[in-house]
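Hi there. Long-time user, first ticket. I'm pasting a complex I've been working with (about 700 residues overall). I'd like to know whether the download I got is complete or cut off, because the file seemed smaller than I expected. Thanks.
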Amino acid sequence: MEFAVSVRDLVKRFGNIEALKGISFNVEKEEIFGLVGPNGAGKTTTLRILATLLLPTSGKAYVFGRDVVSESSEVRRYISYLPEEAGCYRNLTGIEFLRIVAKLYFSNKADVEEAVELGIKISGLGERLYDKIKTYSKGMKRRLQVARALMVRPKLAILDEPTSGLDVLHAMTIRKTIAEFSKRYGTTIIMSSHIMSEVERICSRVAVMNKGKIIEMDYIDELKQKYGVTDLEELFVRVLKSDSASIG
Amino acid sequence: MIALPLVEKEVKDLLRDPRILIPFIISALIMPIMALVVAHFMTQEVATGLEPINLGIVDFDKSNVSKYIVSLFISEKMQSQGINTELLELNAIEPKNIKELISSKQDLEALIIIPKGFGENITHIKRSYIITIPIVRSIGFSGIGVASKAERVIDIVKEVVIKDISSRLGIEPEVIETPLSTIYMTYVTDKLLMGPPSMVLAGISMAAIMIPLIVMVIALSVAQMSATSMAIENEERTLETLLTFPVSRFNILMAKLLGSFSVAIIGSAFNLVGLYLYMIVMMRFMTSIKPSIPTNQTPIQNIQISLPIDISPIEFLIIGISLVFSLFFLSALGIVIGALSSDVRISSTLMGPLSIIVIIPAYMIVFVDVEKLPLFIQVLLFSLPFAQPAALIKKALIANLSILDTTYLGASLVLTLIMLLVVAKIFTTEKILVLQRGIELRFRRRKKSFRT
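Hi, the file is complete. Here it is re-exported in full:
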């Protein structure tokens, strides 16, 4: 069976620091997979390798069967990456930004317009899309970025902290959009988040990371049952505690 | 294939950025403004020269000629022309007496002293002299105006003397004034240019210094713009997203280069418009160098009397191609600097030393006789893409470009391609992010050690 994402013994070193210590996991097609863990756990490094921005020190990573190192150009055709602190081009209008990105993914004019229409819908920015991005609030910029990442209907969306810096209402809208989008277009999503309730609502499976390793991975319901907890936050604390105890 | 949407993004983003557009507009406006300021003072000087003057005249000679000159100045005709003359007395032509006289007449602007023997010399058609003292009471442009006013008075005296002599000798006053007209042509290296050597050389030097320097400034501004544009991508965190789009890294690089290049062309056009306006404004105030040729002599044909700049269309083409390579090279260099900088501040700091490396060859080209330099330095100056246009322009101005110079274009092309490959290499791997992080950490450490 071909997985949407397949990671094998992935190691990444930055000088003396080992950011990833041989992690392995698979993400099934059309699945929403969550990476959770404290700061410095290696979530962003994993996502950056999958997005072809970083090279692994050793190990392998595949996206729809394509090697992220040797077949990076093909991989980039399948993915759409939303970094945690994604910026926008301040002097372009929102609509110009969406159209330029759409043109990079599609050569057919109808496909471009279809993607832009979808982007307009996902962003929910209405008339403000015709204003320069430098006039947008942080929340508006994030909504535009989420729209940009999803409107091209990628096979795999890599979302690093998709609701980063958003207020409760905006975060809720974006969460809803991601979940609905995946269901409707069959897009596989791999995302990281600090907000456990967010992961619990969107993702079906999670991998809990700590200090460059995956310390627990399964369906959320299975994990809750295994640890006898009622929510993901409680589960997260329990898993981290037991990991610290085993290291100690 | 080049990712045209990315080129579109580059051009729009750069042109709408006031940090990039405003310097272009300023460069176009500042030059004609400079010309207007200079022209304003020139006009003021001329106008001051025509303003009324309070003239003092002392006649030691008391001859018929001197009396005629005095009566002419005191006449109503002169008063109507703004020359208000007062006949003064002086004990002797000595500095002490002259100073006393001038200080006692505070409104006096010029003093003319006709010494004894003036009339006699003119009667016997001998050289004669008068003493003219323009009175400058303050240092500045008004002082220059006073000198112009005094010149006007001397011209009137000269005219009287010439008319007197010419009528007695029965010859044209113009012959006495200018007995021989000279048409100057100057042969410089292998060009024949119109005008006296001092003027031709001044013109060539001006062009040979100014034009290469302007070209170098434009080239540097292109490097600066590319570096800033790339650093903004890092600062605003857009590069990370850009590198994950389904476009090859080489295409992203080419789009950046073409975007910067297009904007640079617009910027250069602004600069050229500014230069053109400067020349137009200045030309209006420049005196013609056309000599007066006697009517019975054949005038010289086919020699243009203009600024001594003579560059053929083929030379323009060679310089143009060289400029394109140069702009691409410097744009690529700017992109490397910008890509390695996590923000605009770091990119500006890195651009400083780079600018010095670019400026040194430019200064050598402008102020040193390149042909007298050791051969390998000559080859280097003519081959380095960022120095080549300046070297070619200077050579085209003072001599003619040769076949050898077209081979230098090849060298420049190869170096530009090598630079593009290096930049592409940085773009194709994660090096860009790793190197950038390294430079950022180094900057932070330096800042920290500076603080402690």
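A couple of notes from our side: The longest strand of chain B covers residues 53-59. Chain B is about 70% helix and 5% strand.
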